[in-house]
Amino acid sequence: MNAIRLQPAKLRDTPVGGMVVRFTFGAIVSVAAGLVGLRWGPVAGGVFLAFPAILAATLTLIEEEEHRRDPAAQDARGAVLGATGMIAFAACVWALATWLPAPLVLAVATVAWAVVAGLLYLAFGARRGR
What we know:
single chain, mainly alpha
């Protein structure tokens, strides 16, 4: 496992065009999330803001660092499985928020996320022969 480290000197090795693409994509996603929030409320806007903005930047960095697509593809698959679990989390909060105390709602929603994401991971791993 690699340790997380800060290497400011690596900024010189990063092409300016790549940085412009990342920042532009992040700004576009932020504007889109704002528009979603205006139309369907801040909760929907927040959901759209968190996932795509982080994922795109992460995948481009991983692909550049590894010089091949496999690690980026694995991260993308994991993000999709985790995001699907987050849909289960959101559905539980939406369905239970007016019926149960908040700590219990969050506990149930967290379990729902873990179960859905875990089952999808197991199904995906089995399908890939792992």
